[in-house]
Here is the input.
Amino acid sequence: MPDPTVGDATAGAVTNADATVGLAADHFRSYSVVGLLAVVGVLFVAVAFGAGRLLRPVVPTPEKLLTYECGVDPVGEGWAHTQVRYYVYAFLYVVFAVDSIFLFPWATVFADPGYGATTLVEMFVFLGFLAVGLLYAYKKGVLSWT
Here is the structure.
């Protein structure tokens, strides 16, 4: 049996170009699976919509074309004014709900040794920004329900 240390050095060695081609093939193989899954997903949705279009009955009548609102026949225009304050309340809720989620990671870091004072100061700065925003909303009259 020949000694592996003696002989041609390039016979069993992997060159840098071979390694690069192998890495590129691995990356392509990984992304090809993701691409194939995306194509299958798009085809599934397209087939579902196509089957729905082919199988549904199409019999338009004047009653079916009317706007339905809780069993009451529509009267007047289809446009209605929406109060902006409802959106403001929803926005404020989302802001404070998302901000309250930031309290959980803070609480876990606060319990770690060596981070107590730093995280306490950071949290009071964060809550200060929230308080300033709430005060601004109150001064603008956003929080008054009229």
